[in-house]
Specification:
The complex is a heterodimer.
Chain A: E1 26-29, E2 35-40, E3 46-53, H1 66-73, E4 77-78, E5 81-82, H2 83-91, E6 96-101, E7 106-113, H3 116-131, H4 137-154, H5 158-171, H6 184-189, H7 192-202, E8 208-214, H8 218-229, E9 251-256, E10 261-269, H9 278-290, H10 296-303, E11 311-315, E12 323-331, H11 335-352, H12 356-368, H13 377-389, H14 396-405, H15 409-419, E13 426-431
Parallel strand pairs in A: 2-8, 9-13
Antiparallel strand pairs in A: 1-2, 3-7, 3-8, 4-5, 6-7, 10-12, 10-13, 11-12
Helix pairs in contact in A: 1-7, 3-8, 9-12, 9-15, 10-11, 11-15
Chain B: E1 6-7, E2 31-34, E3 39-43, E4 49-54, E5 60-67, H1 81-88, H2 100-107, E6 111-116, E7 121-128, H3 132-144, H4 150-169, H5 172-184, H6 198-202, H7 206-216, E8 222-228, H8 232-243, E9 266-273, E10 278-285, H9 296-308, H10 314-322, E11 326-332, E12 341-349, H11 355-371, H12 376-392, H13 397-409, H14 415-418, H15 420-426, H16 429-439, E13 445-453, E14 460-463
Parallel strand pairs in B: 1-6, 4-8, 9-13
Antiparallel strand pairs in B: 2-3, 3-4, 5-7, 5-8, 6-7, 10-12, 10-13, 11-12
Helix pairs in contact in B: 1-7, 3-8, 9-16, 11-16
The chains are: A alpha+beta, B alpha+beta.
Chain lengths: 434, 471
């Protein structure tokens, strides 16, 4: 939608005192093998549910885009309901249904008021969509052609181009090499039979995690899971996405694009969820480029030199080793200078590690800002789904502050030196004449 | 990480109301309590209005300072100055060095940011509730004591130009929208973009910012909004302690520059390197501050929701699914725009379709809604969505503060949000048809079409870059 968009507000963060108790998560496994994570929140008469399957693009095989299309087709016809009827059923009661598909996970979400009549109706429709999708041919052709137009549109975005090239260069033949949206040729080859097979294999109870937050009792939560998700066959959990081999050599890719800025990405394979180095790497990155304007990268690139509006670094911990990425956008003629500063900054950080002051400041920020995880139902349900999907310990949130506090500067430095090699980075530059 | 220094183009405030009139126990007292909404307000002697909404779900607080200034206060030659000044507000005061503001908030576990809109500039922090005084101390300091250093300005103006390149120059759809707005609005200050024209940024001087700061940054031109796990009376005392000493200024009255009546259809093409065509249609429409009849903006809100309030609405159903003439389509209308509003449609044609096909299909839908009454089912759906969103929005204290701050700063008053549902409920089918046939007509229409030019990109040069790393 034009105009009416709030361009990104960094508001996902509230803070909290030490010693504040993290939410007590209730966890159980249903008779059919669905892993459930529940947090009662009686303050508002509403509930949020996320159903997550290990069925993201990493399971596409060579049919890139299959996971996304399968997920996207669920609400395009299910049971005896058309796409129109499904949308009407949710929206006529103010419920909102969402679905999306990523490299690791395939996700369905529902937000509804908890007034019985409304909630029952929302859940009934959700159940049909989840357990009895029909993948109608006509709707499939339409959704595929919309996806293809989306892929065409990416060709006009230097940001999308750089992202795609970066993953391809970093992951080679690992499943993470391909975007969840797929590629034009692969999407054209996908059939309804492919989606039906994908759905049957992966949309099963043992491959599902359910997160529930809201004004519900434990009994209600159990009955929701049993009735709504219980309609799925038991099946088998998906085979875990394999580890990605570490990048062995530096690789620099320059792609011409008629843009006024060059988009630069530099990176390497980073870490998995549950990685033993998670906290040292997380805190180190927070200092390097993960804490907005007070990070070292923002200081070097933006505050000291005015080279970019946005410069950052982050790890994306995933099922297999997700990437470690540093990035910025700058006018074409500054691209080489900015890239040089970016690389020097990374090398210096890996060589020397953080100063005592930097570490103390980062810990204060992370500890004081812990409530970002739990200050709204929306944030809590996201956390629950993530904890469940990645098999993180139930007390992950409880121990978060203690885990942050326990990290020292030496651990950060050693973890970076062990994991990040500045001489073997993938570099992608997309833009005009530099 | 999220980027700092945000540019707020516009916000879709789908705010709604619940029943019950405001309770003012004793209007002679400076503190006004609106018990139904947990809102209390007080204006300090220097003119600073403080509004507190108590929400005790989590031990956190959001604090926002809103100034009545934004791009629509600007004039030719200095466009973008409100937004550049917003950037410079983090670059030091008499007491704090450049960047120290952000460091202090970060060390207190807080998040902070700022955004500039057409009609406001706002600064915010989110903190554990006991650290609210830290936010007050810093915001009170920069309300009057900012030092605009030439050397900081020289770097920051480069940052803003990079921001403009990223947001607009290299995004064909954003570029199209910018030219669209400059065509649809002639004399209104909504004519230019919030971030400003590049040439104005290139010629901006630090003195422009100093004049702007002096002219608009004053307690009597600001609203302080606090939402979270706080007690209103304590917040007022604290606000008095930190902001009470700041002297008010004489603040100029903004010239209204009310948009002239359009006298016929306007069409433009925007050529830019792109792969996919795109189009925007916008009709001049009233908003709540600029309307002949009070009900009209609400009828337009319902109209927009009937057309495009979800996957079951008419545009998705007919244009995307049935006719496949649109790959994507959006409709936007905001009754709470302080100036002349545009009801806009924007979209990308479906496979094998053109922007002309898409325009014709949109016109067909306009014809139907201008001549036929909407169904009971459609009206009921829109109302159910408003009722639910009223509950959902309470999950975010930030959203609640935004709604209050925006309506206050634009002079409409935060209570307007609370009346929303009641006003929407009063809208009739006939009224929807009436506003459609009155406003969605060619004489009020501007159309902008993105005309894709060859990208000529994608050439790749891979090279082993052994020696170049690490510098």
């Amino acid at each position: 939608m034009v105009g009416r968009i709030l361009l990104v507000i960094g508001l996902f963060a509230l803070s909290i005192t030490q010693g504040f108790a993290a939410p007590k998560i209730q966890h159980w496994v249903s008779d059919k093998g669905v892993r459930v994570y529940f947090f009662p929140a009686p303050e508002l008469p509403m509930m949020d549910m996320r159903v997550v399957f290990d069925a993201g693009a990493a399971k596409d095989g060579d049919k890139h885009g299959l996971a996304l299309l399968t997920n996207g087709m669920l609400a395009e016809g299910a049971g005896d309901l058309s796409a129109d009827a499904i949308a009407e059923r949710f929206e006529s009661i103010g419920a909102s249904f969402g679905n999306s598909s990523h490299r690791d996970m395939s996700l369905l979400s529902l937000r509804s008021l908890t007034e019985k009549k409304l909630l029952d109706a929302a859940l009934e429709t959700f159940k049909v969509v989840l357990t009895d999708p029909k993948f109608p041919e006509e709707a499939f052709e339409r959704e595929r052609s919309r996806l293809l137009i989306g892929l065409e549109r990416q060709k006009q975005s230097p940001s999308a181009i750089s992202n795609k090239a970066f993953y391809k260069a970093l992951y080679n033949d690992h499943p993470y090499a391909y975007p969840a949206n797929g590629e034009i040729e692969s999407v054209k080859a996908i059939t309804v039979a492919d989606m039906e097979a994908f759905y049957e294999k992966y949309f099963v109870a043992k491959n599902a995690v359910v997160a529930l937050v809201g004004d519900l009792s434990r009994e209600q939560a159990e009955s929701i899971v049993d009735s709504v998700i219980g309609g799925l066959p038991e099946g088998e959990a998906a085979v875990r996405t394999p580890s990605s081999s570490a990048l062995s050599k530096a690789n620099e890719i320059r792609i011409e694009h008629p843009s006024s800025q060059s988009h630069i990405l530099v990176g390497q394979a980073g870490m998995k969820r549950g990685d033993p180095d998670y906290f040292p790497l997380y805190i180190g990155n927070h200092i390097l480029g993960g804490s907005g304007l007070v990070s070292i990268l923002a200081d070097e690139i933006r505050e000291k030199r005015g080279l970019a509006y946005s410069s950052y670094s982050y790890f994306i911990p995933m099922r297999a080793e997700g990437p470690f990425i540093l990035g910025l956008q700058t006018k074409n003629k500054s691209a080489n200078e900015a890239l040089k500063v970016l690389r020097e900054t990374l090398k210096r950080f890996v060589d020397k590690g953080p100063s005592k002051e930097e570490l103390v400041a980062a810990k204060k920020n992370l500890v004081g800002g812990f409530a970002l995880k739990i200050a709204s139902n929306k944030k809590i349900v996201e956390n629950l789904a993530s904890i469940g999907f990645y098999d993180m310990p139930l007390d992950y949130l409880d121990k978060f502050i203690a885990n942050v506090e326990a990290v020292d500067a030496k651990q950060v430095k050693e973890a970076f030196q062990r994991r990040i090699d500045p001489t073997k980075m993938v570099t992608v530059v997309v833009g005009g004449e530099q | 990480m999220k980027k700092n220094r945000l540019l707020l183009l516009l916000i879709a405030i789908f705010v709604v109301g619940c029943s019950g009139a405001p309770v003012i126990p004793d209007a002679s007292k400076p503190v006004k309590r609106f018990a139904d909404y947990n809102v209390t307000e007080k204006t300090l002697a220097n003119g600073l209005k403080v509004i507190v909404k108590e929400d005790h779900r989590a031990p956190v607080v959001v604090s926002q300072v809103w100034y009545r200034v934004g791009s629509s206060y600007e004039h030719d030659g200095i466009t973008g100055v409100s937004h550049v000044l917003e950037h410079m507000m983090f670059k030091g005061t008499k007491k704090y060095a450049p960047g120290e503001f952000s460091k202090i908030i970060a060390e207190n576990g807080g998040r902070e940011n700022a955004f500039t809109g057409r009609d406001y500039t706002a600064y915010f922090q989110q903190l554990e509730k006991r650290r609210l005084p830290i936010s007050f101390e810093l915001e009170a300091d920069r309300m009057k004591n900012v030092i605009l250093l030439e050397e900081e300005f020289k770097k920051e103006i480069q940052v803003v130009m990079e921001e403009r390149r990223m947001r607009t120059e290299d995004k064909p759809q954003a570029l199209t929208f910018e030219q669209f707005a400059a065509t649809a609005y002639v004399n209104s200050a909504y004519h230019w973009p919030i971030i400003g024209w590049m040439n104005d940024l290139e010629n901006m001087e630090v003195q422009d910012l100093a004049d702007w700061y002096k002219g608009w940054y004053a307690p009597n031109n600001a609203t302080l909004v606090v939402v979270g796990d706080v007690v209103a009376d304590q917040v007022f005392t604290m606000a008095e302690n930190y902001f009470g000493e700041i002297k008010p200024s004489i603040v100029k009255k903004r010239k209204p520059r009310k948009e002239i009546e359009q006298k016929g259809i306007k069409r433009i093409a925007v050529k830019a390197p792109a792969q996919v065509p795109y189009m925007i249609m916008g009709y001049q429409t009233p908003s709540v501050v600029d309307t002949e009849h009070e009900w009209e903006p609400y009828a337009l809100e319902v109209l927009a929701a009937v057309l495009d309030g979800g996957a079951s609405a008419r545009m998705e159903k007919h244009l995307v699914r049935e006719q496949e003439v649109a790959a994507s389509i959006g409709t936007s209308y905001d009754a709470f725009t302080p100036g002349r509003e545009l009801l806009m449609f924007s979209g990308t044609p479906g496979q094998g379709k053109t922007v002309e096909d898409l325009e014709n299909a949109i016109r067909e839908q306009i014809k139907i809604i201008s001549t036929e009454l909407v169904s009971d089912k459609e009206l009921a759906r829109v109302k159910a969505q408003v009722v639910a969103s009223k509950v959902y929005e309470k999950d975010s204290i930030f959203y609640q503060a935004m709604s209050i701050g925006m309506l206050e700063t634009t002079g409409m008053g935060w209570q307007l949000a609370e009346q929303y549902l009641a006003r929407i409920n009063k809208v009739t089918k006939e009224q929807i048809r009436t506003v459609a046939s009155k406003y969605l007509i060619d004489d009020k229409l501007t159309v902008a079409v993105l005309d894709p030019q060859p990208l000529d990109s994608g050439k790749m040069r891979a090279r082993a870059a052994g020696g170049r790393h690490g510098g």
